[in-house]
Amino acid sequence: EAWNLLGAVYWRASNIPAYREATCKLCELHLRARESEAAWQDYEDFLNAGGENLPPSVWLELCRVPEQQLDFERAVSEYEKLAAAYPSERQSLMAQLAAARICIKRLNRPQDALRLYEAAERSAVPHLDLELDIQSGIRTAKDVLSQVKAFSAGAASSN
């Protein structure tokens, strides 16, 4: 409640940078309390006040909200924004892998999944512990793409 009140005070005083900071903190607190809808509303308020990038650990957790709500397009978009905003952070790598997984398993976009897995593979962020996941994802995406091409070639030749 104190952070809500503080944000309201900053808003009324037209101290937008302080309002964004308070809203960011409120978002983090709502995520910790597992109040995902309130956290998402905080994020929307943060963006509407001109905010751009949350801290990477908060943003990564927030990206899971639309994924849990089955809004996969929004989840991928948020994961990609996080990865672009913090390319040298571990959360960026985790965001790329999460977006790739959604693309291949939920959105039927193997080309996007392959692009994201390959970007993770090239990442300067240390990722030896994730190398098996990355290589497996690349193989899966390539297999799906091969199946799509084979199906398309078969359909074209039968016409």
Can you walk through the features of this model?
There is one protein chain. Helix content is 79%, strand content 0%. The chain has 159 residues and is mostly helical. The radius of gyration is 19 Å and the shape is elongated. The model has no long low-confidence stretch (mean pLDDT 94).
Which terms summarize this structure?
single chain; 159 residues; mainly alpha; 8 helices; 79% helix; elongated
Chain-wise SSE layout:
Blueprint: H1 2-12, H2 16-32, H3 36-48, H4 56-68, H5 72-85, H6 90-105, H7 110-122, H8 131-158
Helix pairs in contact: 1-2, 2-3, 4-5, 4-6, 5-6, 6-7, 6-8, 7-8
Give a short synopsis of this structure.
The chain has helices at residues 2-12, 16-32, 36-48, 56-68, 72-85, 90-105, 110-122, 131-158. The chain is an all-alpha fold and 159 residues long. The radius of gyration is 19 Å and the shape is elongated.
As residue ranges, the low-confidence spans are: none
Radius of gyration: 19 Å
Q: Mind summarizing the main beta sheet? A: none
Class by SSE composition: mainly alpha
Distance from N terminus to C terminus (CA atoms, Å) equals 66 Å
Tally of helical runs: 8
- SSE pattern: HHHHHHHH
- The number of distinct β-strands equals 0
Proportion of beta-strand residues: under 5%
Please bin the fraction of helical residues: over 70%
Instruction: Specify the overall morphology.
Output: elongated
Mean pLDDT: 94
